[in-house]
């Protein structure tokens, strides 16, 4: 599976149940366009979230290994795009649900939903391997939703645009907490409590670094935030629903992504089974709703914009299919291209740059 000018390589993280065995790869033909060549890229347990280093040399995945959980590092062949396991770091207990890596490939950070922890690992930028966690922070507290917020549930951890800080989202305690990375040791510098019971899940920054957008799982909203890169602090100034007002069935907000030009925000809805599109006011950072597009399946988890941002690929966990859309760069709207791409229990999709 080599690289050509009109094809892109993507990877899909999955839940390893049913027919699923690990990470899958695919090729996006950008000329036709269509997705093809679905194949197993790596066999491992519950690689539900993966991330790729900026230089395309390494892929990092969360991993479940029996009663152990942690992070695995893979090299990516520059010729064939095949994955080769470098090493893994696992400890007793549940596996993480999110993983991020810095631009220099020096640190990997994970969020552990079940443990309520954020864990920082030093990475070797020369060979891609990860060392045992150098810092683990245990969150405390609970929220008003007795079923989902009975304890901390860390759902996201990622680097701020200048990588001065690490932003961590805790669904269980309705908080966005900022940590400094002091040579591999996490130190809290700021904390924002969002609307009680909203269940914050994932965060994405506007490319100008002044705004950030926080997707909530329990209330199905996007919270628009201002960000101070000096102090690492956030302030909320807008809440906007991701589902229609007359939709009364169960919905859980999932992923959120911002376009490179900062003009549009996309989010996925599990239950409503849609991607919601929002336009960004470039002066204020506020969002305006544009449209909902069906995900042509059940329970969409993550989705991804390809490097050119001409296409979007969504993953429907429960119906086991990927969906390919064309994206209109002027209007932000999505046009369905292909919806019959079978991948078992897909969760996360990432492209090589």
UniProtKB/TrEMBL annotation:
GO cellular component: cytosol
One Pfam match: Lactonase
MF-aspect GO terms: 6-phosphogluconolactonase activity
Chain positions covered by the region annotation Disordered: 131-152
Gene3D superfamilies: YVTN repeat-like/Quinoprotein amine dehydrogenase
Matching InterPro entries: Cycloisomerase_2, Haem_d1_sf, Lactonase_7-beta_prop, WD40/YVTN_repeat-like_dom_sf
Family statement drawn from the similarity comment of this UniProt entry: Belongs to the cycloisomerase 2 family.
Name by which UniProt lists this protein: Lactonase family protein
């Amino acid at each position: 599976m080599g690289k050509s000018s009109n094809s892109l390589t993507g990877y899909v993280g999955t839940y390893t149940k049913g027919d699923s065995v690990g990470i899958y790869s695919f090729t996006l033909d950008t000329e036709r366009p269509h997705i093809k060549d679905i194949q197993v890229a790596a066999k491992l347990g519950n690689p539900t979230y993966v991330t790729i280093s900026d230089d395309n040399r390494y892929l990092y995945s969360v991993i479940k290994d029996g009663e152990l959980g942690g992070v695995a590092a893979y090299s990516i062949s520059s010729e064939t795009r095949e994955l080769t396991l470098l090493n893994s770091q696992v400890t007793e207990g549940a596996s993480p649900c999110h993983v991020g890596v810095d631009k220099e490939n020096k640190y990997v950070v994970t969020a552990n939903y079940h443990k309520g922890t954020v864990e920082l690992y030093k990475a070797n930028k020369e060979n891609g391997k990860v060392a045992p966690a150098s810092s683990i922070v245990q969150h405390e507290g609970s929220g008003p939703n007795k079923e989902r917020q009975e304890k901390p549930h860390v759902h996201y951890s990622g680097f701020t645009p200048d990588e001065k800080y690490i932003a961590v989202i805790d669904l269980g305690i309705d908080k966005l907490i900022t940590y400094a990375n002091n040579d591999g040791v996490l130190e809290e510098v700021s904390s924002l409590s969002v609307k009680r019971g909203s269940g914050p899940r994932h965060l994405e920054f506007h490319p100008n670094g002044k705004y950030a957008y926080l997707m909530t799982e329990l209330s199905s909203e996007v919270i628009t935030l201002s960000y101070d890169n000096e102090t690492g602090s956030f302030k909320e100034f807008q809440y906007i629903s991701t589902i229609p007002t007359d939709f009364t069935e169960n919905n859980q907000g999932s992923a959120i992504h911002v376009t490179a030009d900062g003009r549009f925000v996309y989010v996925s809805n599990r239950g409503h089974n849609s991607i919601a599109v929002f336009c960004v006011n470039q002066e204020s950072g506020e969002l305006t709703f544009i449209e909902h597009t069906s995900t042509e399946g059940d329970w969409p988890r993550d989705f991804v914009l390809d490097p050119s941002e001409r296409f979007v690929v969504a993953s429907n966990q429960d119906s086991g299919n990927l969906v390919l859309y064309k994206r209109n760069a002027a209007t932000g709207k999505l046009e369905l291209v292909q919806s019959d791409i079978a991948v078992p229990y897909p969760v996360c999709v990432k492209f090589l740059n």
